[in-house]
# Entry
Amino acid sequence: MKKWIKVVLIILSVPIILIIALLSAYIIMNWQGVIDPYQVGDPNAPKKVLIASQGSDFKNILLEDMVGQLKSDNIYMSIIDCTSLKKDNSTDWNAIVIIHTTKVHQMPKYVSTYLQRFSDLSRFILVSTSGGGDEMITEFEVDAISTASRLSDVARSP
# Structure
């Protein structure tokens, strides 16, 4: 192969490899884990709350704090991973909280598919996280909170 062709191929391949490496690093750093389901409280309690979340350090602390605040209020809580929403029958819940990440200006498809099943979203609360905290969900008329995924924002007291 001629030397100039090798030089051109190297010049073209370096940016492509760099872009692939940076994109891979971003995906790995922002990968959302899956949480294990669990329940808190008496299943016969008068108020029942479903909390669906994705797994990340920020979301796990937020979830722990939320469950800690609510468990003394005689509320039954079922905590599931967002990917399990498709199995849920929402008529059982007084409130449904969904904690999810927003990527490329969109919520995860399984969350939007779940929300599309309901005409009345008055029992729903969305907590949408993103890198900068400025991603807002506008496709559904629902109470929502947008926040950056910063561990310092949910700092634990000693």
Summary: The chain has three helices and six strands. The mean pLDDT is 81.
